[in-house]
Write a structure and sequence with these properties.
The complex is a heterodimer of chains A (about 375) and B (about 400). Chain A has about 375 residues and is of the alpha/beta class. In chain A, about 40% of the residues lie in helices and about 10% in strands. Chain A contains twelve helices and twelve strands. In chain A, the strands form three sheets. Chain A has a seven-stranded mixed β-sheet, with helices on both faces. In chain A, strand 6, helix 7 and strand 7 form a beta-alpha-beta unit. Chain B has twelve helices and twelve strands. In chain B, the strands form three sheets. A seven-stranded mixed β-sheet of chain B has the order 2-8-7-6-5-3-4, sandwiched between helices. A three-stranded antiparallel β-sheet of chain B has the order 9-10-12. In chain B, helix 4 links the parallel strand 3 and strand 4. The longest helix of chain B is centred in the middle third of the chain and has 37 residues. Chain B is globular and about 75 Å long. The chains are: A alpha/beta (about 375), B alpha/beta (about 400). Chains A and B meet through helix 1, helix 2, helix 3, helix 4 and helix 8 of A and helix 1, helix 2, helix 3, helix 4 and helix 7 of B. Chain B: Its cofactor is pyridoxal 5'-phosphate. Chain B: Pfam families: Aminotran_5. Chain B: This is Cysteine desulfurase IscS.
Chain lengths: ~375, ~400
């Protein structure tokens, strides 16, 4: 069967074969409920405990700081709503480029008496220092700024932001879903700087969908989003998703082992990609900032992103025109709007995100197809006008 | 015969091998994010999600548009109760549920109490079933939500859902049913039942862990406040990337349940009856919960004059539980059995046997024999058993205080 070249690793990643091997026994003979006390249950519990160690090791956390959830969205919801529920309503600050699973819960909290401040970003997508300093003077109770943006890949200097927020006593959270596996992640160091929680997810790092974690400083008091059997130290009830948790653990073990080499490899591939894009006249968003090594978000002036992505799909390349969750949304990217990109140019946005299966040959081929497609689109436009 | 024998199907079931085979391609080559709209990886995943939604809806005779994916029945219960209570809070702030519900319902209702709702926890009769008159009497003008489980997880009794539905609909009260233990075991026809919200789990019906669903009625339309916000997946009811392989697994598991439940339940009923008959030979054993209004899969028995923990240790070749898995870490006697009026000793000496698709007759024979031998041995060591055999009524004994 014809399989398109997959260049959308920020949306989700193919499962690593070793992860599948780790999971299979738990989809077959090791089916116990981790809360059961008999041998089937104890075997499941041991597997969950081991995965917790693996997630902790890959994130630089202690195993007791890892709370398993069903996904990155849940981790983000759990932190924001859970922390808010244990505090008196006050000031909550989130950056203007957060994923909807931070932005929407923040709106929800606004309806419950919280004042929500949106932190402006500069033209490269980084939180503006001046605006941030002003915010801190107003003593926020909660701050959430993502480590890396899912669309642009732009990194925030979260350690510095958290450090600056320390005197306010705010709980500081960071969505690290796009960082895990691509860059080294060290919760201990970030925690030392004043970061209290990180969200990480399995399916962005070659693990299965359905598992994620909130890495949480135990001093933070959270109310659970999901009540019931009291699993995950009462922070997240529900029967543990043992196969997915085991897969997440295995993916974390691989990530921890490979991240240094992987990061270099991705950076080389992206350099090859962006040299070609640049040559063809692309405007690359956030290129002036530190970015994830795998992400390239760009537009060609006068070329509609949706259209280009459609052509590329038919030519055998799976890329994204925006974040997967809001791909159906015809509005230009919120992230690019926050960066002050003109709406006409933002409508041209295409995201290529590289991953473990990406190769130099694929990128060469992609650049060739892109060139042909752009020429075709330009001549069509010329004909139309 | 593989030891320990698994008789804890109410805690979780093995994934049916046919289900696992369906799931694996969606872990490997069909790995797309169903929310990706710009390439075939996404479309393929989305199509699989929608097919599974039809399969789940078909088992319970619902419209696929009425099915919302969640991470499991616990999340479904939380979404249903918090979502409906909050949405309809303007109409009233009283919730009715039952003392024998699963923790996922009880703890959620307790949380609503902390948020200013009031709640009534209905008693059950000695057989574990609720008395409809007691329910009617508990309804107040400000009652907005009733939550009653279909099948109890510890004693397997089937509550009169159709009748409760009539009562609630007549009064305009939202009716939620936790059906985690019901799918594949009892017929569920949501076209007939006047149920507004129903929670489902995959891993109690030979599907994978980590996936469940909530049925949300469209006619008459029931509205909910979402509990998980973000990308707006599941028509805004529940944001978060859909775990395609798990959803495909749940769909296939429910498809198999629909196809095979009639035959399977006959076979399981025969095994349960064999187990019951085999254990009833012993003196001073009691079945907990109604035997008639009960799923075929469950047998919950108390073995008087035997300490439950010691019994569990003695029969470790059989994987069973003394309560639900979620509360099994605590040594408290089961709150479900206490709600039936069982005194602590009997509640303490109870065992839940839950039988399923892969249970064999040979295994049941083994368990009967093992129980006879181990219960006999433990009783030999029990002074209470000696007194009982001497005809002393233990309830009249004045125990010395220590």
């Amino acid at each position: 069967m014809f399989a398109p070249v997959y260049l959308d690793h920020n949306a989700t990643t193919p499962l690593h074969p070793e992860v599948l091997e780790a999971m299979l026994p738990y989809l077959r003979e090791q089916y116990g409920n981790a809360s059961s006390r008999h041998e089937y249950g104890r075997a499941a519990r041991r597997a969950v405990d081991e995965a917790r160690q693996q997630v902790a090791a890959a994130t630089g956390a202690h195993a007791t700081e890892v709370v398993f959830t069903s996904g990155g969205s849940e981790s983000n919801n759990l932190f924001l709503k859970g922390a808010a529920a244990s505090l008196r309503p006050g000031l909550l600050a989130v950056s203007a480029v957060e994923h909807p699973c931070i932005a929407r819960p923040a709106e929800q909290l606004a309806r419950q008496g919280w004042e929500v401040a949106t932190l402006a970003v500069d033209g490269e997508g980084r939180v503006e220092q001046g605006a941030y300093a002003e915010l801190l003077a107003r003593r926020p109770a909660l701050v959430s700024v993502m480590l890396a943006n899912n669309e642009t890949g732009v990194l925030q200097d979260v350690a510095a932001l958290a450090q600056a927020a320390r005197p306010t006593g705010a709980w500081f959270h960071s969505d690290a879903v796009q960082v895990l596996g691509k860059l080294e992640l060290d919760f201990r160091a970030l925690n030392g700087a004043g970061v209290h929680a990180l969200s990480v997810s399995s399916h962005k790092i070659g693990g299965p969908k359905g598992a994620a974690a909130l890495v949480l400083d135990k001093r933070v008091e959270l109310q659970p989003l999901i009540a019931g059997g009291g699993q995950e130290r009462n922070l997240r009830s529900g029967t543990e998703n043992v196969p997915a948790i085991v897969g997440f653990g295995a993916a974390c073990a691989l990530a921890a082992r490979n991240v240094k080499e992987y990061r270099r490899r991705l950076a080389d591939l992206r350099q090859q990609l962006e040299a070609g894009l640049h040559h063809q006249g692309a405007r690359i968003f956030g290129a002036g900032a530190e970015r994830l090594p795998n992400t390239s978000y760009f537009a060609f002036p006068g070329v509609d992103g949706e259209t280009l992505v459609g052509y590329l799909d038919r030519a055998g390349f799976a890329v994204a025109s925006g974040a997967a969750c809001s791909s159906a949304n015809p509005e230009p990217s919120r992230v690019l709007m926050a960066m002050g990109v003109a709406p006409e140019l933002a409508r041209g946005a295409v995201r290529v995100s590289l991953g473990a299966t990406s190769t130099a040959a694929q990128i060469e081929e992609f650049l060739g197809v892109l060139k042909g497609t752009l020429e075709r689109l330009t001549s069509l436009t010329a004909m139309a006008s | 015969m593989k030891l320990p024998i698994y008789l804890d199907y109410s805690a979780t079931t093995p994934v049916d091998p046919r289900v696992a085979e369906k799931m694996i391609p969606f872990l490997v080559e069909k790995f797309g994010n169903p929310a990706s709209r710009s390439h075939s990886y996404g479309w393929e995943a989305e199509a699989a999600v929608e097919e599974a939604r039809e399969q789940v809806a078909a088992l319970v005779n619902a419209d696929p548009k009425e099915i919302v994916w969640t991470s499991g029945a616990t999340e479904s219960n939380n979404l249903a109760i918090k979502g409906a209570a909050n949405f309809y809070a303007g109409k009233g702030k009283h919730i009715i549920t039952v003392k024998t519900e699963h923790k996922a319902v009880l703890d959620t209702v307790r949380e609503m109490e902390r948020q200013g709702f009031s709640a009534t926890y209905l008693d059950v009769q000695e057989n574990g079933l609720i008395d409809l008159e007691v329910l009617k009497a508990a309804i107040r003008p400000d009652t907005v939500l009733v939550s009653v489980m279909f099948v109890n997880n510890e004693i397997g009794v089937v509550q009169p859902i159709a009748e409760i539905g009539e009562i609630c609909r007549e009064k305009g009260i939202i009716f939620h049913v936790d059906a985690a233990q019901a799918t594949g075991k009892v017929d569920i026809d949501l076209d007939k039942l006047k149920v507004d919200l129903m929670s489902f789990s995959a891993h109690k019906t030979y599907g994978p862990k980590g996936i469940g669903a909530l049925y949300i009625r469209r006619k008459p339309r029931v509205r909910l406040e979402a509990q998980m916000h973000g990308g707006g997946h599941e028509r805004g009811f529940r944001s978060g990337t859909l775990a395609t392989h798990q959803i495909v697994g749940m769909g296939e598991a429910f498809r198999l349940a629909k196809e095979e439940m009639v035959e399977e339940n006959k076979r399981i009923a025969a095994l349960r009856d064999k187990l019951l008959k085999g254990l009833s030979d012993m003196e001073a054993v009691y079945v907990n919960g109604d035997l008639e209004h009960r799923v075929a899969h469950n047998l919950n028995m108390s073995f008087a004059y035997v300490e439950g923990e010691s019994l569990l240790m003695a029969i470790k070749d059989v994987a069973v539980s003394s309560g639900s898995a979620c509360t099994s870490a605590s040594l408290e006697p089961s709150y479900v059995l206490r709600a039936l009026g069982r005194e602590d000793e009997l509640a303490h000496s109870s065992i839940r046997f839950s039988i399923g698709r892969f249970t064999t007759e040979e295994e049941v024979d083994f368990v009967v024999k093992l129980l006879h031998s181990k219960v006999g041995k433990l009783r030999e060591l029990s002074p209470l058993w000696d007194m009982f055999k001497e005809g002393i009524d233990l309830n009249t004994v004045q125990w010395a205080a220590h």
